[in-house]
Amino acid sequence: MSQNPRIALIGAGNVGGNLGILLARSGFSIRFGVREGKDLKDVLARCEGRADVTSVPEAAKWADVIILAVPGNAVVEAAGSLGDISGKVLVDCNNPLRWDDGPVHTPPPEGSLTAALAKAFPKARVVKGFSTFGSEFHLDPKIGTTSVDVQLAGDDAEAKALVASIATRAGFTPIDVGPMRNAAHLESLAILWIHLALRAGQGREVAFKLLKRG
Ligand SMILES: NC(=O)c1ccc[n+]([C@@H]2O[C@H](COP(=O)([O-])OP(=O)(O)OC[C@H]3O[C@@H](n4cnc5c(N)ncnc54)[C@H](OP(=O)(O)O)[C@@H]3O)[C@@H](O)[C@H]2O)c1
After folding, report:
1. To test the ligand 1 pocket, which listed residue (9, 15, 130) has its Cβ within 8 A of the most ligand atoms?
2. N or C: which end of the chain has fewer CB within 10 A?
3. 208 falls in which pLDDT band (50, 70, 90)?
4. Centroid of ligand 1 to alpha carbon of 212 (angstroms)
């Protein structure tokens, strides 16, 4: 698989916008897929000429890797508007939650949004990633010299390795956390992050890091 994949961002909000800017600045060709009437001038201006914007299906058709960053309750519907994504890598940044004086985990019957996507689009190569930290880190993945961890879960080793290489080039530290079933743990971890950041007083400039002795 190409080491210089074309990357589409579906959803250009906090996560998709920031990650698209970072990936463009890291040298990738970026296309934002947006719904009609969306103005992305400010985001594109920050992409150093390496990004453009099209409709959602056009962006998906063009891309090798599609990064989906939409509200958790719109994930499967949004993926349904991509068109034929057979063989493409689909990165799921999303988290299922509702708000009840704090974040409450609301996984779908499949156990995780990632598993729901894989079930609905069995020919896509689904990887969970970029989901367990706040969107500030999607733009700036380092604290001092320490890179934020991007935990990756999925059953397709080659697809995970490609996403890991993208993450590394953008300045993150990728950590392979195993098969698709472990995406459920990442979604729980994200809910914990939201609680820590927004309810427990830690603030948004925190992230989980795997420490290793020696
Ligand atoms: N915010 C964070 O710090 C953070 C961190 C990690 C993970 N996440 C997860 O990342 C996902 C995105 O969060 P966000 O904060 O970036 O949300 P956001 O700022 O609200 O952006 C959501 C984006 O999704 C687009 N969208 C919504 N429905 C769509 C559809 N059916 N088809 C195509 N595009 C659609 C919206 O476009 P329109 O303008 O057209 O509605 C918007 O650009 C969520 O699942 C969240 O749990 C968020």
Report:
1. 15
2. C
3. very high
4. 33
Does residue 133 contact residue 59 with C-beta atoms inside 8 Å?
no
Q: Write the pLDDT tens digit of every residue in 4-48.
A: 999 999 999 999 999 999 999 999 999 999 999 888 999 999 999
Phi and psi dihedrals of 110, rounded to 5? Answer: -75, -10
Query: What would the pLDDT profile of 79-108 be if each residue is shown by its tens digit?
Result: 999 999 999 999 999 999 999 999 999 999
CA distance 24 to 131: 19
pTM for the model stands at 0.98
How far does residue 200's CA lie from ligand 1's centre (Å)? 24
Instruction: Give CA separation, 120 vs 3, 75, 115, 143, in Å.
Output: 27, 11, 9, 37
For ligand 1, residues with CB inside 6 Å are 10-16, 35, 38, 56, 69-72, 74, 77-78, 81, 93-95, 131, 134-135
Measured in angstroms, how far is the CA atom of residue 89 from the centroid of ligand 1? 19
Reading the block at residue 115, the tokens are: 């598993």
Please, what are the domains in the chain? 7-198 (3.40.50.720)
Helix (H, G, I), strand (E, B) or coil at 52: strand
Dihedral angle of Cα 199, 43, 83, 155, to the nearest 10 degrees? -50
The pLDDT of residue 48: 97
